[in-house]
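for the writeup, i need someone to sanity check this before i put it in the appendix. the sequnce is what the collaborator sent (i think, or maybe the updated version? ugh). structure was predicted straight from it, no edits. if anything looks off just tell me and ill rerun, i have time this weekend
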Amino acid sequence: MVKLPSYIIEFQIAMDGVKRYTGWTDEEFATKLGVSVVTLRGARRDPGSVNGGLILRVQHMLQEYRKKAGVIG
């Protein structure tokens, strides 16, 4: 089994977290990120192929929704 780098695991967790906090469909999530649905689903399938900009946008979104939910200060 191949061990994934921590940034990929964190990206997967962030993507799942944003979907859980928002309840967005893939189409809505992709639109908010400024990518196509195909790109979003590809990122979920193969997170190692994702560029750094998308990773940062997803992580920023998750942080913002955690703040709104009162999970972090």
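Helices lie at 6-22, 26-33, 37-45, 52-69. The mean pLDDT is 89.
thx in advance!!
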